[in-house]
Design brief:
Length: 293
């Protein structure tokens, strides 16, 4: 069949139109999306640890990425790119502390914050069941200044013991909830501005795990600061005017300083009386934030 010029022009126009219509139907499907965090109260966890976020998708954790925190509490990154299908399906967010480098693809036991998504936002707290599962509103504490491991009475302000002797006999001085795996309590005395550990513990009904500066002691958390003083300090010392602190520490713990979670703090009075019960106060300013998808 032969076509004249008019017929060829009409045929060319029709093919071009069909081709252009076909290209209009090509839809680009986005497979990724962004996910963001707004968190305050975190602190630098050093060069051998890092924060990592996780979303729960179909009951399993999927990493949202890692970030560090500087001395000002600022996150090195707060926006992350993920598979859109995972973000859409996420039911909860969990923040952990991981070793760095980390050869384990699964989350560690050190869950700092968590929250359930509601209308695209998860309010993150330590009290969520997937984090520490407690708001620590019921904590309380008592302590005394004494040095039960020495034979002299001239150094009694050089020891702190988290106990209550108001009945005439030493008794438990701390009211603390049981911590989940990945966490431990640690006692501290702040001496001339330097926090010095009294040891870590899981229960206030027994001794802590360390006697670094003395030998032994009563079956309660505490320490006599008698020997092996850290650089810049001299033992025995006088704890008056300093502070007594109970912190919550990640396990393992790569820092010689208290972690940001310090539920009990007591300022030790100047000329503090020895062997007399002193109170710890609540300090419940914990990290909080939001995960936004």
């Amino acid at each position: 069949m032969k076509f004249n010029l008019s017929q060829l022009a009409i045929l060319f126009f029709g093919l071009t139109f069909l081709a252009s219509c076909g290209s209009d139907d090509d839809t680009v499907i986005e497979t990724t999306d962004t996910f963001s965090l707004e968190i305050t109260g975190l602190e630098d966890v050093g060069s051998t640890a890092i924060y990592e976020g996780w979303i729960m998708v179909d009951g399993s954790p999927k990493s949202t990425g890692t970030f560090s925190v500087d001395a000002n509490g600022d996150l090195s990154s707060n926006t992350f790119t993920l598979e859109k299908s995972d973000i859409d399906a996420a039911t909860a967010f969990i923040l952990t502390i991981e070793p760095s480098p980390d050869n384990d693809p699964a989350p560690s036991d050190v869950h700092v914050l968590a929250g359930d998504f509601n209308n695209g936002t998860a309010d993150l707290t330590i009290s969520h069941p997937a984090a520490l599962n407690n708001d620590f509103a019921g904590v309380a504490g008592k302590y005394i200044l004494a040095t039960p491991t020495t034979t002299t009475d001239t150094d009694e302000t050089s020891g702190v013991w988290f106990l209550d002797n108001s009945s005439g006999m030493p008794a438990v001085g701390l009211t603390l909830p049981t911590l989940p795996a990945g966490w431990a309590y640690e006692g501290w005395a702040v001496i001339d501005g330097t926090p010095v550990s009294t040891g870590t513990f899981l229960s206030a009904t027994g001794a802590d795990d360390a006697s670094i500066y003395s030998m032994g002691g009563p079956p309660f958390p505490g320490e006599d600061f008698i020997n092996n003083a850290p650089a810049g300090l001299t033992f025995p010392t006088d704890l008056s005017g300093g502070a007594a602190v109970i912190s919550i520490e990640p396990v393992p713990d790569n820092s010689p300083a208290p972690f940001t979670l310090k539920p009990l703090v007591g300022m030790i009075p100047e000329n503090a009386p020895v062997h007399s019960v002193l109170d710890l106060g609540q300090n419940l300013a914990f990290p909080t934030g939001q995960a936004i998808k």
